[in-house]
Design brief:
Chain A is mainly alpha-helical. Chain A contains 11 helices and no strands. By secondary structure, chain B is mainly α. The chains are: A mainly alpha, B mainly alpha.
Chain lengths: 280, 275
């Protein structure tokens, strides 16, 4: 009887979040042109890095920074895919919810606030990923780059694990940064701009492979969570990081997930205590 | 009989220029006051921009250090092209920040209030709010251009032509922002089109020779990035013919003329919805 009730409540909860998922997906389609133009912007950002590396590796058999032509162009194409999974997120909007006082509405609903945003993120990632796959295929047909297809099952498995950890890391980072709106509501967007747009873009490897940087800087970066967002999963896919090194990386990134999770909970609890529902 | 009319026209033009300059100073002062009321935010955005530019320059530095050249350009030349791009980007952001506030005007129908004022509507929505953050960055960028440019040992004529082509690049950017505004009236979409233009323009951060055909031709003729950014830099490097300079300036003027015509057309399609 107890198990039946527990199962039924689990099903109810699942159905709640599946509704959130559906609504979020529909929400993305309200401003269709907006979405399509945003995707177009992603393609442009890939053009710059693709042609830069294409030009550098136009000389046959050239190996620079440990990459040959095939691996570097695969890195660029993998960027589209990995960025769509990791960086597609709605959690940045939490800042606005706090600043406008809309958080009060959300807190009154019978929903877990974190699960709610995680579900919205999953919807956003699903949509972005499907568009990224189409874009990648089209660009692949147009640009005809050489592509490295990983056939080692362990590397693929490690790549998937590292990707899931990257998603969790990004979600936690966004929530922590968004929490700043509890203390400085009008500054939320500015703080997001400097951390999640400027610093993360550069230090995550979404502009270029991080091993282009001098060794000391690269080594320091490998101990930060940024390293595990984009660069690490792609390197694992390419097989440049494999075996024990890949497992070690996954462990470090997992430790970061735990640290950021605890930090987020603590900041969130403190934030709720100072929250005054401005604008409500 | 013709001479006095021309004189009158010049007098009117000077008077109108003074009138618009006065309005621009007034609007910019208001925009400055808004920024100063949020000083901490101003510092964060300024810092973010400085970090972004520094990051990209260091990226170029490390790449060229490993590869020696990019598309045949050495480190100083690559950085000069990037700085030229940055100058045009920052200067146009400083002057035309108001473009990003155009969408609410169109959606709410408040653009009516702009149209009835005795000021050019285009001037108001294009230059109505200068961005002080970008203004602060202009002097250091000019200094950096001077510092890197001096290493190429340019002649006085080359420097003059560089400045002329820089102004021409700004003219083309102006044309693009006018097209974005026109597109805004026709489709209610401004922010992303402006950002798409900036994304396309950002391809100019690298020498145009990096891009493969037909993208290179597209960027040279349709989105004249080559004319806006690479060409001025090539003048300073001393690898360009005077004929190209004349052709580029002609292209800039024709492009601006064409964009104002599109703007006039878009105005006829404004429906004053929601007002």
């Amino acid at each position: 009887m107890y198990l039946k009730e527990k199962w039924s409540s689990k099903v109810n909860e699942m159905s709640k979040y599946s509704q959130v998922f559906k609504i979020s997906l529909q929400d993305e389609f309200v401003y269709r042109l907006n979405f399509v133009l945003w995707r177009l912007r992603n393609v442009f950002s890939i053009f710059l890095v693709f042609f830069l590396w294409d030009s550098i590796f136009s000389v046959q058999d050239r190996v620079i920074f440990g990459y040959d032509r095939v691996k570097i162009l695969t890195y660029i194409f993998a960027l589209m895919f990995v960025k769509a999974i990791v960086f597609a997120s709605k959690t940045m909007d939490v800042t606005g919810e706090i600043a406008r006082g809309d958080l009060s509405n959300s807190l009154l609903k019978p929903l877990d606030y974190f699960k709610y945003w995680l579900t919205r993120d999953v919807a956003s990632k699903t949509l972005n990923l499907s568009f990224a796959l189409v874009e990648t295929t089209l660009l692949f047909l147009i640009l005809k780059p050489p592509f490295f297809l990983q056939n080692n099952l362990i590397s693929i498995l490690l790549f998937i694990v590292s990707l899931l950890i990257a998603v969790a890391l990004y979600f936690l980072i966004l929530f922590i940064v968004s929490s700043s709106a509890f203390w400085v509501p009008e500054m939320g967007w500015a703080i997001h701009f400097i951390i999640t747009i400027v610093i993360l873009e550069f230090l995550s490897g979404s502009l270029f492979p991080l091993d282009v940087l001098p060794k000391p800087i690269f080594s320091i970066l490998s101990f930060t969570p940024f390293y595990y967002l984009i660069f690490f999963p792609i390197e694992v896919y390419l097989g440049k990081i494999s075996g024990g090194e890949a497992v070690r990386g996954i462990l470090i990134s997992f430790v970061w997930v735990v640290i950021l999770y605890l930090l987020m909970r603590s900041i969130w609890q403190k934030g709720l205590k100072v929250y005054q529902a401005y604008g409500r | 009989m013709k001479f006095p009319i021309k004189l009158l026209n010049i007098k009117t033009i000077v008077k109108r220029t003074g009138y618009y300059l006065k309005i621009w100073v007034l609007m910019s002062r208001n925009a400055l006051l808004v920024v100063l009321s949020q000083r901490f935010m101003f510092i964060i955005f300024l810092l973010a921009k400085i970090i972004r530019y520094s990051f990209f320059i260091s990226f170029l530095y490390f790449v060229v250090k490993g590869t020696n050249t990019i598309a045949g350009y050495d480190l100083n030349q690559v950085i000069l092209i990037y700085l030229t791009f940055t100058f045009i980007d920052i200067a146009s952001q400083f002057l035309y920040r108001e473009v990003y506030r155009f969408r609410p005007l169109i959606i709410s129908g408040d653009f009516d209030l702009v149209l009835v004022k005795p000021v050019s509507a285009l001037f108001r929505v294009l230059m109505g709010g200068a961005d002080i953050i970008d203004f602060v960055l202009i002097p250091p960028i000019i200094f950096a251009i001077w510092f890197i440019g001096a290493k190429m040992d340019p002649s006085f004529i080359q420097v003059i032509l560089y400045v002329l082509l820089l102004a021409n690049g700004l003219l083309i950017a102006t044309g693009f922002y006018i097209l974005v505004l026109s597109f805004g009236i026709l489709t209610f979409e401004v922010d992303h089109t402006a950002m798409i233009f900036r994304d396309m323009a950002s391809l100019g951060r690298l020498p145009i020779e990096v891009y493969r055909q037909p993208l290179r031709s597209f960027l040279t003729f349709l989105i004249p990035l080559g004319v806006m950014i690479t060409l001025p830099s090539r003048v300073l490097m001393g690898i360009i013919s005077p004929l190209s300079v004349v052709g580029s300036c002609a292209l800039g003027i024709v492009f601006l003329y064409f964009s104002t015509k599109i703007w006039s057309f878009a105005l006829t399609k404004y429906t004053s919805a929601s007002s």
